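Page 42, continued from yesterday. The earlier attempt failed because a stray header line got pasted into the input along with the sequence. Redoing it now with the clean sequence only.
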Amino acid sequence: MICREFNDNIIEYAAGRLPADQSARMQAHAATCAQCAAIDREERELRRQFRAMAPIGECPDLWPQLAARLQPPAPRPSFFPRVWAFGGAFAACAAACLALLSFNLTRPGPVPSGPVVSAAEERRIVAKVSETREMASAESEAMFDRIENSRDRERVILLGGGGQ
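This time it went through. Structure tokens are written below.
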């Protein structure tokens, strides 16, 4: 037997709960190992002292004694009843603030009094618009057909087959 095994089983050995063969091995190890013999003596002395102690009597109930010594707490003023007394006024004030806020948010902004763009910028825009020409109907349809055909080709390439 090794010391670790002795230490693991010392409580059961001192209590006399080990089988006879294991108890004999524990006794033989304690006879050869001074350190384990000291542990065995300490455990047996501790058990003897516990057995020598007077039994613990019934404990009295402490609550009646504590309750007699405690004073009831003084009532404290509560903040919440006063707050809720003004609940209607708070709700009316909140509704008025919300109405004013929504009125200001839905009202259109001021209309600019002066020109939106400068005169030079206006001349440049007019020149660009006058340079553009209206596309003839046949020409525009041919352009849309070319775009549609290129999309069909892309579908055939990407999807394979008829592009369906």
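Notes: The mean pLDDT is 79.
Reminder to self: strip header lines before submitting.
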